[in-house]
From TrEMBL:
Pfam families: Glyco_hydro_17. The lineage of its organism: Eukaryota, Viridiplantae, Streptophyta, Embryophyta, Tracheophyta. Gene3D superfamilies: Glycosidases. This is glucan endo-1,3-beta-D-glucosidase. One of its GO terms (biological process) is carbohydrate metabolic process. It comes from Araucaria cunninghamii. It is an enzyme of class 3 (hydrolase). It catalyses: Hydrolysis of (1->3)-beta-D-glucosidic linkages in (1->3)-beta-D-glucans. Belongs to the glycosyl hydrolase 17 family. Its EC number is 3.2.1.39. The chain crosses the membrane at residues 369-392. Keywords: Glycosidase, Hydrolase, Membrane, Signal, Transmembrane, Transmembrane helix. InterPro entries: GH, Glyco_hydro_17, Glyco_hydro_17_plant. The keyword Heme does not apply.
Length: 393
């Protein structure tokens, strides 16, 4: 009997070692000259259970490689091409060439038009964004694809003029002329509002006053919003709820907020406080555990938090600070940047163990975080029984 139960436990554990246990997305950036081919990346994502990926373009190599993979894709339309989409004919042409051509094999579910447009300094681009989104949506309608594909755009948290406390969240007043039409579009089409949320940046800017445990999802005293009396145990939830408040302040409700980017760099320059392997491991590991609970924020507890982690790979050609090139969960060779308890492989390569050098020195591991709590209890009970049986014999 003990042998049978032991075999059962091993079977269950083997089935949980190579998946994240939660439908989480990943940002698949390619600003690098040393990344594996898309064909090999397919195997990596499948082996660790990734179900959703977000591109910053509509790279035909990637879209072809991921045909029949079962992975959902958000394709991107770069800021450089937003102006072209204000021409309805060009919008139809773009959708035909970059979306329709890959359906139904490649599961494209959304088109992200532009990225962080409203925190730039290009007024013309800001003015063109909503008309471009409207034309891309109209192109989907004309092709009979609007029911399956959303049109959206991702924003930096810099669009907020007030973010604390979350109940007082408000957009910068000068952006309301752009954001009101955008929110009208989301309301009419049922598409989500995307925010790139990085507690890391808030901590880096004020490490003396922002508790590190609060931004890393570690046990902490939390903070109570004096306006709503809601308690926040982590900054990510506070950032998201400040966006919900800002949307409500403009008179809009029932528009879902999704996290299009969040992550933590594993390396940084000397002035980039907190950019370490250990903090990156803790942030992303605890983030995955939080998402596995399938709960919302304090302000929207029943609304699941759709999230895309940034990013899949370290990208060696990204400009700027060292941190910009070190957000990846994986190195270009397919080995992990740090240990998250994952086991997978690039297509065409041997399985790699995701207990890499650079793991947190405190020995924080997340292998069991992705096993439902009830299953953990069951396994512990079975193991206790097995030990008792073996001791008898």
């Amino acid at each position: 009997m003990a042998a049978i139960l032991l075999a059962f436990v091993l079977f269950l554990l083997s089935g949980t070692s190579n998946v994240w246990g939660v439908v989480v997305g990943i940002n698949y950036g390619q600003i690098a000259d040393n990344l594996p081919s898309p064909e090999r990346v397919v195997g990596l994502l499948q082996s660790i259970g990734i179900k959703k990926a977000k591109l910053y373009d509509a790279d035909p190599r990637v879209l072809k490689a991921f045909a029949n993979s079962g992975i959902e894709f958000v394709v991107g339309l770069d800021n450089l091409y937003v102006a072209n989409m204000t021409d309805p004919a060009k919008a139809v042409e773009w959708v035909k060439e970059n979306v329709e051509a890959y359906l139904p094999g490649t599961n494209i579910t959304s088109i992200a038009v532009g990225n962080e447009v409203y925190t730039g300094n290009d007024t013309e681009l800001m003015e063109n964004l909503v008309p471009a989104m409207q034309n891309v949506h109209a192109a989907l309608v004309s092709l009979g694809l609007e029911g399956a594909i959303n049109v959206l755009t991702a924003h930096s948290s810099g669009i907020l003029g007030t973010s604390y406390p979350p109940s007082a969240g408000a957009f910068k007043p000068e952006l309301s002329v752009f954001l009101s039409p955008l929110l009208d579009f989301h309301k009419q089409t049922g598409s989500p509002f995307l925010i790139n949320a990085y507690p890391y940046f808030a901590y880096k800017a004020d490490p003396n006053n922002i508790p590190l445990d609060y931004v890393l999802f570690q046990p902490n005293e939390g903070q109570v919003d004096s306006g709503s009396n809601l308690r926040y145990n982590n900054m990510l939830h506070a950032q998201i709820d400040s966006v919900y408040s800002a949307i409500s302040a403009l008179g809009y409700e029932n528009i879902q907020v999704q996290v299009s980017e969040t992550g933590w760099p594993s390396q940084g320059d000397s002035d980039e406080v907190g950019a370490t392997f250990e903090n990156a491991q803790i942030y992303n590991g605890n983030l995955l555990r939080l998402l596995a609970q399938n709960q919302g924020t304090p302000m929207r507890p029943s609304v699941s938090l759709d999230t895309y982690v940034f990013a899949l790979f370290n990208e060696n050609l990204k400009p700027g600070k060292t941190s910009e090139r070190n957000y990846g969960l994986f190195k270009p060779d397919g080995t992990p940047a740090y240990d998250l308890g994952l086991h997978g492989s690039l297509s065409g390569s041997n399985t790699v163990s995701y207990a890499a050098a650079g793991a947190a020195s405190k020995g924080t591991h997340y292998h069991m975080f992705f096993v439902p709590l009830c299953l953990q209890v069951l396994l512990l009970c079975i193991c206790s029984f097995i030990l008792g049986e073996l001791l008898i014999y």
